[in-house]
Amino acid sequence: MTLRILIPIDVEEKRSWTEILPELRLHAKGNSVELTCMTVVPDLGTVIAQAAQAAPFASFVPGELKEKALEVAQSRLGEITETEEIGIINRFARSGNIYSEVLQTADELSADLIILMSHIPDFGDYLLGPNAAKIVRHANCSVLVIRPKNKRATHD
Asked: For 99, which of 11, 12, 131, 139 could close a Cys bridge (C-beta 3.0–4.6 Å)?
């Protein structure tokens, strides 16, 4: 049986891959794994509208800007996830609502497992918390949430 794993990656946060890698090794060990890494470029019009607290500006964002953002994201995803120890990795970038795109991709792939990084509460990562929660609540497969090592509490 092949285990289909989807890993959403924030290409602006390399540890969204590096801290997942040890858990991925555990799940891949002794299993046939079909691994897909993806990233989502939020709709730029929506991001602008949220920042301005105004109506969506999607119609004002040039299509070539969206295409360029997807190209950059795809390239960065390849750089971040480059490793030979896991085997073949399918990679792609999508544009849209982060949690919706992840859930849709998981369904399209018939994913058995989604592995994602938990929220780190600082301004640069503010979109990941709510998205991770929605993915956990609405996924049609199991979801493994990895906590960052440097934020884990130690108990004596």
From this structure: 131
Q: Is 103 in contact with 135 (CB distance < 8 Å)?
A: yes
| Residues 74/92, Cβ–Cβ less than 8 Å | yes
CA angle 92, 101, 78 (to 5 degrees): 20
Pair of tokens at residue 66:
């969206």
Cross-strand pairs, 116: 145
Which amino acid appears at position 123 of this protein?
F
**Predicted confidence (pLDDT) per residue in 2-59, tens digit:** 889 999 998 888 888 888 888 888 878 888 889 999 999 987 655 544 455 444 544 5
Please identify which residue in the block is written with the tokens 């859930």.
103
Report in angstroms the alpha-carbon separations of 12 from 2, 25, 73, 80.
Answer: 30, 23, 9, 10
Q: What contacts 122, CB < 8 A, 6 or more positions away?
A: none
Residue 117 to residue 94: CA distance in whole angstroms: 18
